[in-house]
Amino acid sequence: MIRFLDLPGQYQSLRPEIDTAIQSVIETGAFIGGEGLKRFEQAFAEYQAVEHCVGVANGTDALEIAFEGLGLAPGSEVIVPANSFVASSEAVTRAGLKVVFADIGERTYLLDPADVERRITDKTSAIVAVHLYGQPAPMEELIAIADRHGLKIIEDCAQAHGASIGGRTVGNFGSIGTFSFYPGKNLGAYGDAGAMVTNDAALAKHCRMIANHGRVEKYNHEFEGRNSRMDGLQAAVLSVKLTKLDDWIDARNAVARVYSRELEGVGDVVTPQVRPDVRHAYHLYVIRTSRRDALKKHLADASIQSGIHYPIALPRLRAYADHPQHEEAFVASEQAPTLLSLPIGEHMGEEDALQVVAAVRDFFRG
Ligand SMILES: *Cc1c(COP(=O)(O)O)cnc(C)c1O
User: Fold this and answer.
1) pLDDT tens digit string along 163-199?
2) Ligand 1 atom 6: the closest Cα is on which residue?
3) 180 sits in which H/E element
4) How far apart are CA 288 and CA 341, in angstroms?
5) pLDDT < 50 stretches in the chain
6) What pLDDT does 365 receive?
7) Hey, which of 99, 159, 170 would you mutate to test ligand 1's pocket, going by the most ligand atoms within 8 Å of its Cβ?
8) For residues 91-125, b (16+ Cβ closer than 10 Å) or e, as one string?
9) Which residues are near ligand 1 (CB < 6 Å)?
10) Half-sphere exposure of residue 196, counting CA atoms within 13 Å on the CB side?
């Protein structure tokens, strides 16, 4: 069996360290905030090479709080890629802003800068650059566009911990970057958790206050915020896992190299295009084929798990039935029925990747 994700196996490989870390939180009673959270925030800021990290309850809250913290004009338009997890657009609406979808590159699945620029109006206030599947979005082009039009950039780094462009880590390009530590992400907690990173001290402080009831100190509240804090148990687990993340990303890249080398030209498979000079975090390895559903079944019959990210492009979701772009023709909507995510992760070796390749080849021969 080749699993899509193997969290129990990962736990076994880290068991003594994780158990000690969890026990120490329980013994000291530092369930919310505390030294353990501070240590994780510092370690993660260092890992992402940013000055400030604010831990929150999940990646969706991180986005919402980032929009609020930036003080974008109420009702202004925010450009979001048409292919992403729904949180990327949902948080825009929740923050009182308007979602405008832009299309993606045909083989990168990342925002297409030319299409972004076409969508800009005098109401546009920001762009959400999603580093989808773990690959950094084309930040150089997006920053040039944002500068020309006076827009903010929010980086949705939920799938891209440790990814970089020319050695510069994601979260360093826009005003603020947001992360998710949902269990299945490359760096995952044992429950929900998220973070914001930024090099802007005032913005970090403001976001931290929003996430903690707008408070300056206990029972002294400067404004109404909300409750979105990372708990101590999650911070403890994440601190242990963070020390392994680079090795895990390398392992993901090793699997991806096998797929990209061996699957090119097999049947009508289209392998993902990696942009020059990036470190891809390979949260997902997504191929395209016109026979997606049949291939998925063939793999399942060979005990190989696969996934679909995402089956419906954002504008086509029922949630956007009343959105002006619901029916619009996007590359993202056209591609959605052909996308297939092959298993990838540190639980796999090159032998496993070759086994997946063999099953894909077998399907297209048969
Ligand atoms: C997972 C994810 C989020 C949301 O994170 P949660 O922690 O689940 O709230 C946001 N954006 C993208 C691209 C994601 O993959």
Assistant:
1) 999 999 999 999 999 999 999 999 999 999 999 999 9
2) 59
3) strand 176-180
4) 9
5) none
6) 93
7) 159
8) bbbebebbbbbbbbbeebbbbbbebbbebbeeebb
9) 58-60, 84-85, 87-88, 130, 156, 158-159, 180, 182, 192, 194
10) 33
Torsion of CA 196, 273, 101, 93, to 10 degrees: -20
Instruction: Looking at the CA of residue 87, tell me the nearest atom of ligand 1.
Output: 10
pLDDT number for residue 217? 85
- pLDDT recorded at residue 250: 98
Cα torsion 173, 174, 175, 179: sign = negative
pLDDT for 216: 82
Question: Of ligand 1's atoms, which has the minimum distance to the CA of residue 132?
Answer: 13
> What's the one-letter identity of residue 111?
L
Residue 302 CA, ligand 1 centroid: distance in Å = 30
Phi, psi of 177 (to 5 degrees): -120, 145
Counted residue by residue, the chain has a size of: 366
- Ligand 1 centroid to residue 59 C-alpha, Å: 5
* 22-25, Cβ contacts within 8 angstroms, sequence gap of 24 or more: 22/233, 22/236, 22/237, 24/236, 25/232, 25/233, 25/236
Instruction: Answer whether 350's CB lies under 8 Å from 259's CB.
Output: no
Q: Is the pTM of this model over 0.90?
A: yes
Helix axes 35-47, 232-242, angle to 10 degrees: 40
Eight-state DSSP code of residue 270:
B
Report DSSP state, residue 151: -
Strands 124-130 and 152-156, bridge-based pairing: parallel
Tokens of 286: 């997504």
* Residue 228, token pair as written in the block: 């979105």
CA of 364 to the centre of ligand 1 (A): 34
